[in-house]
């Protein structure tokens, strides 16, 4: 699992992250990466939430707190998500258009992660938690299904797949682990290569879902 320290949120980095997020969404939807298609994503709540989250991080880095709070309000009342600007999330993030997502400041999320429906990550109020050090950590290419709850200082390995309505309270150490249940337990493992070539939005291989060839780093994971 790779969780490198994130560089400062400059305008250049913000723009690069937004481009990576929208490009991956286009890949998963099998749409050509044209300017028209990209602009067509912006009114959709899930895509707008990702863009506003990146913008909010840049505003926080510039200490523009009033504007940051306004963006948080837009995120909550329009996109119906709560994304704390303190969360560290790698490029290629995909969020659902139905809202209901909660990601706290204590989350560290890798690249190309996908949330297919309402998901809650929470760490505050849990017994034995030290907010100065404990974090929720998701590796690269993780997929969280609809209704997933991650409670406490949990670390999920690269490619972890969490099935819908599962409650995760323990960490995983093996890449490609499949979790399901309440509490979530290991149901098997998948090769990372398979996960990276799977489309969690369509439930089919990327080679079928996308009309254009895709690089491995833009691929998704199994839902």
Please sum up the structure shown.
The chain is of the alpha/beta class and 223 residues long. It has helices at residues 11-28, 35-41, 45-61, 65-79, 192-196, 206-209; strands spanning 81-83, 88-89, 101-103, 107-109, 114-115, 119-122, 136-138, 143-144, 148-151, 155-156, 161-162, 167-168, 177-180, 185-189, 198-199, 204-205.
Please provide a written account of the structure.
The chain is an alpha/beta fold and about 220 residues long. It has a single domain (about 10-220), classed as 3 Solenoid (UDP N-Acetylglucosamine Acyltransferase, domain 1). The chain has six helices and 16 strands. The chain has helices at about 10-30, 35-40, 45-60, 65-80, 190-195, 205-210, and strands at about 80-85, 90, 100-105, 105-110, 115, 120, 135-140, 145, 150, 155, 160, 165-170, 175-180, 185-190, 200, 205. The strands form four sheets. A five-stranded parallel sheet has the order 1-3-6-9-12. A hairpin with a 4-residue loop joins strand 13 (about 175-180) and strand 14. Helix 1 (about 10-30) packs antiparallel against helix 3 (about 45-60) and helix 3 packs antiparallel against helix 4 (about 65-80).
């Amino acid at each position: 699992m790779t969780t490198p320290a994130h560089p400062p949120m400059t305008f250049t980095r913000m723009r690069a992250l937004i481009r990576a997020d929208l490009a991956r969404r286009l890949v998963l939807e099998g749409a050509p990466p044209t300017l028209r298609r990209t602009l067509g994503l912006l009114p959709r709540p899930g895509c707008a939430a990702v863009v506003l989250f990146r913008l909010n991080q840049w505003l926080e880095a510039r200490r523009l707190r009033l504007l940051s709070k306004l963006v948080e309000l837009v995120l909550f009342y329009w996109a119906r998500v709560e994304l704390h600007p303190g969360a560290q999330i790698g490029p290629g993030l995909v969020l659902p258009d139905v809202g209901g997502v909660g990601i706290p400041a204590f989350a560290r999320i890798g690249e190309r992660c996908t949330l297919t429906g309402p998901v809650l990550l929470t760490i505050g109020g849990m017994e034995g938690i030290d907010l100065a050090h404990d974090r929720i950590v998701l590796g690269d290419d993780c997929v969280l299904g609809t209704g997933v709850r991650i409670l406490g200082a949990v670390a999920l390995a690269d490619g972890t797949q969490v099935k819908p309505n599962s409650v995760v309270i323990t960490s995983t150490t093996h890449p490609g682990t499949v979790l399901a249940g309440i509490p979530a337990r290991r149901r098997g493992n998948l090769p990372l290569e398979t996960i990276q070539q799977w489309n969690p939005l369509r439930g089919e291989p990327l080679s079928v879902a996308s009309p254009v060839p895709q690089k491995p780093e833009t691929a998704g994971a199994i839902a």
